[in-house]
């Protein structure tokens, strides 16, 4: 039996036994119900006959990169992907699904809306997630994000690039060092900054935002 389905069966049996041992469980609306915590969501999806989140993520990226899909539908796929990776487990699965490199490549898309969505997805994936912060560095996306934040002709692209940079550097010193290495000298802070010091990180990002606002719109 598939491990996920085996987990689902085990959870179902345990909850059935809990109900039988407590006569009020099925009649008392105030009775505490057993938690479904730890239940494999892909097993639930398989039981219900729907695609798993991993499958939806792969399908979204396939649509995003397909030359046969219209721009409006690519943007819908991007929006779906961004919502899926708001869930930290899904964001962590991006590596095993091979999504990091194609997502990074969309930062160079000629369509500004595609660049905006790529930066948005990256920012969502790395937010409060060290594993994903490591992956963004590993695919060398920082130089592209800095370039978009400071020089992209589209204001919305610059905003989302700054969002991604801000999410990436917080509480993660390797990313902060990478950001400083890629910033022009005129934007460098006067002293050292710790990625765990939110006030200092905010000040640095404010400098980047101000420089971004001077870029052509």
Please outline what is shown here.
The protein has helices spanning 3-21, 41-48, 53-65, 71-84, 88-92, 100-105, 112-126, 130-138, 142-151, 155-169, 173-182, 198-213.
Report on the structure:
The protein has 217 residues and is mainly alpha-helical. It is 65% helix and 0% strand. It has twelve helices and no strands. α10 runs antiparallel to α12 (198-213). The N and C termini lie far apart (57 Å). 27% of the residues are buried.
Give the SSE layout.
Layout: H1 3-21, H2 41-48, H3 53-65, H4 71-84, H5 88-92, H6 100-105, H7 112-126, H8 130-138, H9 142-151, H10 155-169, H11 173-182, H12 198-213
Helix pairs in contact: 1-2, 3-4, 4-7, 7-10, 9-10, 10-12
Q: Give, in order, the helices and strands.
A: HHHHHHHHHHHH
Number of strands: 0
Number of helical segments with 4 or more residues: 12
Strand content: under 5%
- What structural category do the secondary elements indicate? mainly alpha
Query: Overall pLDDT, averaged?
Result: 86
Fraction in helix: 55-70%
First CA to last CA: what distance?
Answer: 57 Å
The main β sheet shows up as: none
Describe the global form. Answer: globular
Poorly predicted ranges (pLDDT <50, ≥5 residues)?
Answer: 29-37
State Rg. Answer: 22 Å
